[in-house]
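for the writeup, i need someone to sanity check this before i put it in the appendix. the sequnce is what the collaborator sent (i think, or maybe the updated version? ugh). structure was predicted straight from it, no edits. if anything looks off just tell me and ill rerun, i have time this weekend
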Amino acid sequence: QVQVVESGGGSVPPGGSLKISCAASAIHFRIYRIAWYRQAPGQERDLVAQISEDAVPEYADSVKGRFTISRDNARNTVYLQMNSLKPEDTATYYCNSPVGSIAVWPWGQGTQVTVSS
């Protein structure tokens, strides 16, 4: 069973930057599409960015131009560089592998990102 560990979250002021990481124990990691999701208190978990097996990225409109997703298959790791952070980016961030609209791995603990002055 795949295990996922997210890390790198923290607290930053508006306009700040963070880079979060997702390490997954999946065999043949390189064949998986990987996505970052986020969930704020009382809200649904939303997909914010994903990267294909061929490293083609896609972004939600809310983060386009500010966030960059990348992958390092040699390290079984996906990253999310977040710039120009806004208070509305505050959430717990998770990664998973989506097949269509369904996330197929067990969820990790997530990493908390707080944007506040």
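The chain has a mean pLDDT of 96. Residues 34 and 97 are 5 Å apart (CA to CA).
thx in advance!!
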